[in-house]
Amino acid sequence: MNNKFKQRTFRGAFLLVFFLLVPKVSADIFYEVTWPDRKVWLVGTIHLVSHSKSTLSEHAIAAIAESDYVWTEMTPNELARSADLLFAAGMRAEPFLQEELEPELWQQLAALSARVGLAPSILERMEPWLIEYVLMVMVLRAEGFDTRQGIDHQVFGYAEALKKTILGFENAEQQVEILEASAERTAAKAHVGRILTEVDTVAEDLLELERLWQAGDLETIFQQIVEPMSDYAEHVLLTERNQSWFRTLIAEIAEGETHYIAVGAAHLPGEQGLLKLFERAGAEVSDRSNLLPQSLESDSLVLLEGIH
Fold first, then answer.
1. Domain coordinates of the chain in residue numbers?
2. How far apart are alpha carbons 99 and 84 in whole angstroms?
3. Parallel, antiparallel, or unpaired for β 284-287 and 29-35?
4. DSSP state for residue 190 in the 8-state scheme
5. 3-state secondary structure of 38
């Protein structure tokens, strides 16, 4: 793996973070999880997509139609609430950030801020983790990435069109706490230095992630996201959340039900990933990424035709 790529940590921290008329690329990372009396469809998503306009495949969409409930990391309502909470949690009282940084480092950050159209006077009142989020999102939007076209939002759209109940594993407050916790062991100087190092390559990195998602290469996605993380960040961002989501689902899924789960692709593999957690719970886990639409229930396909 490219050593320069390994040093980049933004993608690990913001698994969790423009419409163009170009050809669509349909793909998915798609698993079927079954017990004798219940079933789960499990989809690994990417939160941002680029000019390629990556889309869910038809069989992944059809599985929504045959599911009783749809689970995502956050519901659309909670996602809408999260922006205000991020800023409320990420604004700092004195001392302002400029006072904690060496003059040269602050000037570099201020220049980056001005380059993307954000006043440096706003940045100095932010915690470094919020600065990272804001700057990276602004840079990525300028490069053509858009959360509104991300796979999670596509799931929202199909679920709402099919009148499915959307449930969230976390609320907005919990996601903000996770972002804060993942950064709490990183000093301001180190965090800002990392932002300056990563900002010019983040679009290239996420384009590579998107290509891997299109190819269904789950293992490489996992490796490239996890390898740059500290053990602590991996525990906070992946392990703890996977276990919490798994416990929630097991408690909620009833006999005879089918549930659809769409979460970031990095939550699926690994010893503490959702796939292994389901297997250890006695479920049969089958890779359906190459499943033909005809393999799903015919009623689901009829519904699918109606919402295209």
1. 3-300
2. 26
3. antiparallel
4. H
5. strand
